[in-house]
Amino acid sequence: MIASRENRWLKRFRAALDGEHGDDGIVGVEGARLVEAALGSGLPVEALLVSESGARHLKRVAPALASNVPVLRTSDKLFAGIADTQAPQGIAALVRPRQATIESLLTGTPLLVVLMGVQDPGNVGTIVRAAEAFGATGAATCLAEGIGTADPLGPKALRASAGAALRLPIVHGIPATILLAQLEMFRIKVYAAVAAAEESSNHTSQMGPPLFSSWDIDWKTPAAILIGNEGSGLSAGLVRASDARVHIPQAAVTAPVGIESLNAAMAASVLLYEAMRQRNAARQQRS
Known about the structure:
The protein is of the alpha/beta class. It is built from twelve helices and eleven strands. It folds into two domains: 8-95, CATH 3.30.1330.30; 102-286, SPOUT methyltransferase, trefoil knot domain (Alpha/beta knot), CATH 3.40.1280.
């Protein structure tokens, strides 16, 4: 039973739940759902912490709890002092995420989603969740034109991913130039997601690579999708470095003011779904 806020375990939980991974890379997860996802992910779990009221969740997570994981207990007041949420559920875990490399993401017929300067943790988590749901082999986050991408293992992004960030292989913080060079070396087609189609072929040629709608891309081949910053999108340099641009057609809008474009998370989800649809159809034809 931990009764002091200066306890070393409590300090570790406080830092991890605040998004500080430290030298050991430990990630803090909070809430019954995320703890259950962490325990079921097969990742090493260093410790489980429950408050007096949070002890009710032990029965739920017990089937996935390894016998060698220490279960620490504390008061509701002390737990509230380390929690990242406004209404803590009284249960948290320290998890050691897997270390992915670009090479490990490019096995088989890769489908990679690359976040270039996506700053909103909610968008990052939603994209990672969609990537797992629609069969992507992994994700990468990049610093693009001086704009960083939110940490997919940060508290808000992790909650938005519903635990998918613990299961999907992710390379975080790789420079865009290095990633693009590796994708080229592995012969991965790179598609830059853009807001809308340019109808003029001359304008298209000036902008860089050819432009296709989402369903005109052959997603059955090894592919990487670049998703840009929420406000500015992908830089001109990143678009030119891609093999093609891809846009998502929208219904004609008759109202005076229509939707300018889908946000980053919605666009990524639609593109990933189309990739899964094509790949599933191809597998069914072969069988």
